[in-house]
């Protein structure tokens, strides 16, 4: 049996965060959502006290990431997550106001799974989250490196 997926939401705009969570719930996904309003807290949680990411070895995570954070860029968080041997298997959905084609290309090159520009069409977003939920219920995320 696969472990339930924890959704890590890194979004500094409280209104956007509420809207995202409401639409996740509306789409029938009841997984735990851990909200972070800045990059520092999210990075500290993701990488743990020793900075290795080992705390999350074997856990199924889905990261919803805003690129425009008050203390660091989402690009930096994405890069660090995808370079980490324990976290790199975690799918990352970028949710941001930036629609610059170079920025989008860079995110995909760094390993993001989905790039969604805000304001979000919440019907499409809810459908994508539902599909991810179905994906996680059928497919087990590969275990991270040991």
Question: Describe it for me?
Answer:
This protein is of the alpha/beta class and 146 residues long. It has a single domain, classed as 3-Layer(aba) Sandwich (Rossmann fold), CATH 3.40.50. Helices cover 40% and strands 16% of the residues. It contains five helices and five strands, in the order βαβαβαβαβα. It has helices at residues 14-26, 39-47, 74-83, 101-110, 122-138; strands at residues 6-10, 33-36, 61-65, 92-96, 114-117. Strands 2-1-3-4-5 form a five-stranded parallel sheet. α4 (101-110) links the parallel β4 (92-96) and β5. The longest helix is centred in the C-terminal third of the chain and has 17 residues, at 122-138. It is globular and about 40 Å long. The protein starts with 5 loop residues before the first strand and ends in an 8-residue tail after the last helix.
